[in-house]
Amino acid sequence: MARVVVEVMPKAEILDPQGQAIVGALPRLGFEGVSDVRQGKRFELDVDDSVDDAALERIAESLLCNTVIEEWKVVRVS
């Protein structure tokens, strides 16, 4: 059994209103010096050794992200 992480982030050219809301809130909470925040998603999958990288890529593209506005990457952690 292996642990796989799929990280999904908005593409650079896509507006990230959640990230902008966080940037706006930080100074009000007393945190200075943060100029940008991008909010994404993280998925952790426990997979059998039989699940190859190509299958993981298909899972990410077809189910975990919207490829029109998001980028993703698969990382095997164990």
Automatic annotation (TrEMBL):
Enzyme class, first EC level, given as a word: ligase
Database matches in SUPFAM superfamilies: PurS-like
Keywords attached to this entry: ATP-binding, Cytoplasm, Ligase, Nucleotide-binding, Purine biosynthesis
Catalytic activity, as annotated: N(2)-formyl-N(1)-(5-phospho-beta-D-ribosyl)glycinamide + L-glutamine + ATP + H2O = 2-formamido-N(1)-(5-O-phospho-beta-D-ribosyl)acetamidine + L-glutamate + ADP + phosphate + H(+)
Record localization: Cytoplasm
Subunit composition and interactions: Part of the FGAM synthase complex composed of 1 PurL, 1 PurQ and 2 PurS subunits.
Stated role: Part of the phosphoribosylformylglycinamidine synthase complex involved in the purines biosynthetic pathway. Catalyzes the ATP-dependent conversion of formylglycinamide ribonucleotide (FGAR) and glutamine to yield formylglycinamidine ribonucleotide (FGAM) and glutamate. The FGAM synthase complex is composed of three subunits. PurQ produces an ammonia molecule by converting glutamine to glutamate. PurL transfers the ammonia molecule to FGAR to form FGAM in an ATP-dependent manner.
PANTHER family reported for this sequence: PHOSPHORIBOSYLFORMYLGLYCINAMIDINE SYNTHASE SUBUNIT PURS
EC number: 6.3.5.3
Name of the protein in its database record: Phosphoribosylformylglycinamidine synthase subunit PurS
GO molecular function: phosphoribosylformylglycinamidine synthase activity
Family: Belongs to the PurS family.
HAMAP family: PurS
Pathway participation: Purine metabolism; IMP biosynthesis via de novo pathway; 5-amino-1-(5-phospho-D-ribosyl)imidazole from N(2)-formyl-N(1)-(5-phospho-D-ribosyl)glycinamide: step 1/2
